[in-house]
């Protein structure tokens, strides 16, 4: 299994990805840490496995397929459990996964498959802060220790448009790309004459309260996009 870099993502963007691309429900049960290895059971929609982690980036995990009933029995006696919805996307040759955690608490992460040389890899606009170096965000620690208090991730105009371009299979901009500024063009308004009383940074709560459909979200994003016809 390749190593992954972990990033936070705004809950509203994570839900938009799940609505557009669906997802797979995953249950995992973890057993207490051992000196030289660790074990957990994973139940996916089409596969159940007992997974042995030997430690070290160069050592792959060992998977043993289990009958669903055996996997459920191991899950019931595991020390800590997590439940999340996993959605897989691709950006070029890279695979990325959004992980919407239901248990042990609400949390949204993006796992980006690492490459041998990450020096020239710019962050995608809709990703929040990187938390790869923080053990509290690893799945094992989430199961055994509980969910940390995640930092709030703002939803910017550039982030929303970048994600919509990806979901609609359009060319997607990254930070630092020429001709795609992070901030709106000077003099171009970024609000609508519509009954939206709160800024985009609280779009998550507005979507829940007003029941806005996905098509309206896309219209809002396109309307917020700076004009480029000059």
Structure write-up:
By secondary structure, this protein is of the alpha+beta class. The chain is 25% helix and 25% strand. It contains six helices and eight strands, in the order βαββββαβββαααα. Strands 1-8-7-6-2-3-4-5 form an eight-stranded antiparallel beta sheet. A hairpin with a 3-residue loop joins strand 7 (94-103) and strand 8. It starts with a strand and ends in a 6-residue tail after the last helix.
Furnish the topology, listing elements before pairings.
Blueprint: E1 4-8, H1 11-21, E2 24-30, E3 38-43, E4 48-53, E5 62-65, H2 68-77, E6 80-91, E7 94-103, E8 107-113, H3 139-145, H4 157-167, H5 203-210, H6 214-224
Concise account of the structure shown:
The protein has 230 residues and is an alpha+beta fold.
Straight-line distance between termini: 47 Å
**Beta-strand fraction estimate:** 15-25%
Which stretches of 5+ consecutive residues score pLDDT under 50? 171-213
What class, by secondary structure content? alpha+beta
Kindly state the number of beta strands: 8
Oligomer: single chain
Q: What are the main properties of this structure?
A:
230 residues, 8 strands, alpha+beta, 6 helices, globular
